[in-house]
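Our preliminary data section would be incomplete without showing what the modeling component actually yields. Below, a chain of 134 amino acids is followed by its predicted structure, encoded as tokens that our downstream tools consume directly.
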Amino acid sequence: MKEEIVVTADKRVSELMKEFNEVFNYLRLRLYTSEARLYIGVDTLTPYRVDIDKPICKVRVKSGLDGVISIDGSKTIGQLEDEFYNTFGLVAQVCYTMADGENFYTYKKEQDCMTLAQFNAQCEADGCIKGEWK
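Predicted structure:
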């Protein structure tokens, strides 16, 4: 199984989402336009989702130099979200689905301080649904 995901501007959003879920089975990655930052934790972000059929270079806000983001289990959720915003101008949110089917975003400070591996393990222990990348 792949343990590191390399994100470049030419990677298709759907490909990134699928890879992320293959590495972190109980988590999902969602990308949104920069306007979504105003609504994290208070409202649904769905209206701000980027088109998952396009590559990141077609949906990003920041242009210029093409950055690269490396994702592995040691990266905290907060670091991942900051890197997406600083590199591509996109809001990244790590999501999970509880056993009852209810979806959640990680927006609490204690979640943002956890590594992706730690949070994935916590979601597994909590009985979250796995393999839901879309």
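The radius of gyration is 14 Å. The helical segments are 13-23, 56-59, 77-88, 109-112, 116-125. Preliminary results of this kind motivate Aim 1 of the renewal.
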